[in-house]
Model the fold of this input.
Amino acid sequence: MNINITSAKSYFNEMIDEVVKGNEYFILQQGKPIAQIIPVREDTLSRAEIVERLFSYQTLK
Done:
């Protein structure tokens, strides 16, 4: 969903409730997208977890 920056400021709490439900928002300024609010994916790995997994793989000789 697109929303202008002024409305986003006014309806931030409601937007967060919708994002929790899986919806996404593009914040517009003068009709151009400047930011995106999206739900955090549960399966997203931290950088440390990614590095740990990469180093856990054995190299072939």
Observations:
- The chain has a mean pLDDT of 88.
- Strands lie at 2-4, 25-29, 32-37.
- The chain is about 40% helix and 25% strand.
- Residues 47-56 form the longest helix (10 residues).
